[in-house]
Amino acid sequence: MEQIQRFCFGAPREDFVLVEANHLIEADAYGFRLFLDADNRPLSQIQAGSTGVCSSRADVPLQFEALVKEPGIYRVTVTLQGGNADGKVTLFSTHRRFHLIDCPVKQGEQKTASFSVNVCDVQPNELPLVKGDRVCIGILGENAVLSAVEIEKAAGVTVFVAGDSTVTDQSANYPYCPKTSYCGWGQMLSQWFLPGVAISNHAQSGLTTDTFRNDLHWKVALANMKPGDFCLFQFGHNDQKCDELQAFGGYLDNLRRYVGECREHGVHPILCSPINRILFEENGALRDLLGEYGEAVQTVAQEEGIPFIDLLSQTTAIFTDFGPERAPSYFWNDGNSVDRTHPNDLGGALISRLVASEIVRQGIAPLCGLIREDFVPYEVPACKIRPVPRTKGATSFLLNDQIKINTATVTDLTGCPQKAAVLELLAKGILNPASPGVFSPDTPFSLQDAATAMLRSLGLPGEGADDAKAQGLLPFDGENSDSVTREQLAALLVSAYNLRAPDKAIIGSVTHYPDRAQISPWALDFVRAADEMKFMGPADESGAFAPKSPVTRAQAAGYLRKMMATR
DSSP 3-state assignment of 302? Predict the structure, then answer.
């Protein structure tokens, strides 16, 4: 199979494969899939015309599938044709991931839509691995005709999604009704992004932060990630049912581990608090069933200096504002009862819009620059009855409102072992380039720059050694401003850590360095502590610490990142 495939329907096109209405996917590497009723009979027929094909029913999709050569990102361009009257079309791709919802198509109008999809393996619950080998295109709606499909291997960013049933790709019952279809918000994310961003949803019903790993969902997702990708996490609904996954116990520890593993693979983690259930009190307030889990997520995000999307507070505010009469219309409803936990297609679309809104508001690059131009962020109302409690008195590195995005780029990090740390700290404004476009990784790190970096890592005002000393971050005389030595950097790192978490202050243990006699008496405890906490280690294979040796700018970035990640 080629890296680009072109299919047309209705009238022939040059360089396109003409697909007849009776060509089913079972017969070839491409074709249509029929939706069947309980008696295994087709719910609809595929109707062919001069401009394309459509389903005989507006509430049963027309679905076209094509096998692809290998996993990865594909750019898909779909050409739609308006029928004999104005209509609306809903367009989705593999695993019912939505790209257009009720998009107007005028009579006889030709309209194209382009988007990115990620083709990769998915591990369902207690079922064999589903191999990622095809692109599926589905359309719903009256007077919507499929004229052409183009599938091309492409570059781009993939947003992986990890979570439970409120996030997963849910199936739908046909004939289609958005209120009676389960929908995880992860399958609604694609509609907000331009081509260049693909969604890969690995959430599954019933999962916890434990079972997502133990049942191999995380292994499959991780195997398909590449540096520069993102991973959204939202757990909590099922964790709270497990004694070993208390909010500030196993749950929090698992989130920290996922964040660390993302970073090891060059993937950017984004943590989301769980959406709230719609269980109303008599006074109209939503019950606070997940408050501690929301706080735990926020705690990890603040500790790690990564984006935090507070879906718990936002959904609490929105559904409180909607009230017990309106809120259930955004959750699954079988006509007899209302599900209080699982969104329907309307709810999934709303919550995914909240996620996209936060990506824009927080300036999470490059995703924020790949949002559709017509996207309007959701304005969450103030929750006047019962806001979700927030963590009080938390001190941590890089509070979200303290992060200053540094858009500068540098080009001299090829082969640098600390490249990932340098780029992360540059992006967060903790470090600056040495000059425009240049980081100078092998240049000695000045004491002034080191002091400034410590202040910025804590969100404290000021710059340079004097301001750092005033904040208790410089426990030595800064006579050497040209370069910071290894023992001086150890003192700065430990002082910053102790200032962040005074209740966890470290003092160190017996050092093992063969050159310990060369460590200045004032620095000995700091070196011991930096060694014990693994902020710093031996300078080389000899096992020596080399206390008086200068630290390069790249080395300093690596040490600082280790300290910031230490809990």
Answer: helix
